[in-house]
From TrEMBL:
CC terms in the record's Gene Ontology section: cytoplasm
Pfam family, one: DAO
FAD dependent oxidoreductase domain: residues covered: 13-186
Endpoints of the signal sequence: none
Name used for this protein in its record: FAD dependent oxidoreductase domain-containing protein
Originating organism: marine sediment metagenome
């Protein structure tokens, strides 16, 4: 059962279930897979939310649009693909109005301003000049989740019996299928055949990590993660 939990319930560090807007659901196991929201439920594992934008165009039949990702001035990268329906989906930029996003909780704001919509339209023209006159039919925002080294946290939460975390997927959710298998293994067998050391949530316990001066700028975060992985 997938639930939107507001609180994970526990007794003496043993998980008992979750509280949601619809009431309490008892459970022996809880999987925190809320990515950018993960630290709201599991503060023991630090996941930083970073607000990003995406947009979809009207249908463009017959266009051969291969998935790609490119760096862009002022942002980390833009990527795009085309759905079977013909709609082009483009996403990637972090906060375009940085004065609105000075605190961590600001990154949960899903309201898209007119200036952000114009910026998205501009970059669509830059990336794909041949479709510069195509209408954008939808723009949306959401919080991605970043761990302290850019690698997801997947596994048992230390000191919490019955609690598993699968969050911090800074590169999107392309790993979702295999992570689902790993989580199922952990619940059913208590272990998994996949090598998990690099994803272990306890790798940061007791360690102080100095975040960059502007921790919510996507480009700065990726540079920071690259340095951390080389250390």
């Amino acid at each position: 059962i997938i639930l939107l939990a507001s609180t994970i319930l526990e007794d003496s560090s043993v998980v008992k279930g979750v509280r949601t807007p619809f009431g309490v659901t008892q459970a022996r196991w809880v999987v925190n897979a809320t990515n950018g929201w993960a630290s709201k439920l599991t503060p023991e594992v630090a996941i930083t939310p970073v607000r990003q934008l995406a947009m979809a165009t009207e249908r463009v039949p017959g266009l051969k649009c291969c998935p790609f990702e490119v760096p862009a001035p002022g942002y980390y990268a833009w990527g795009t693909t085309q759905a079977k329906s013909g709609n082009i989906v483009v996403g990637g930029p972090g906060p375009l109005e940085k004065e609105r996003f000075k605190e961590m909780d600001d990154h949960f704001d899903e309201m898209v301003s007119l200036s952000e919509a114009r910026e998205c339209a501009h970059y669509l023209k830059v990336l794909m000049p041949k479709v510069k006159k195509v209408n954008i039919i939808r723009i949306w925002a959401g919080a991605m989740g970043f761990s302290q080294d850019g690698i997801p946290n997947i596994g048992f939460v230390p000191g919490k019996k019955g609690l598993i975390i699968a969050a911090g997927f800074a590169a999107g959710m392309s790993q979702g299928a295999v992570v689902g298998r790993i989580v199922a293994d952990l619940i059913a067998e208590g272990d998994t055949p996949f090598p998990m050391e690099v994803y272990d949530p306890k790798r940061f316990l007791g360690k102080k990590v100095e975040w960059p001066a502007q921790p919510y700028d996507l480009g700065i975060l990726h540079e920071f993660f690259a340095r951390r992985q080389r250390e």
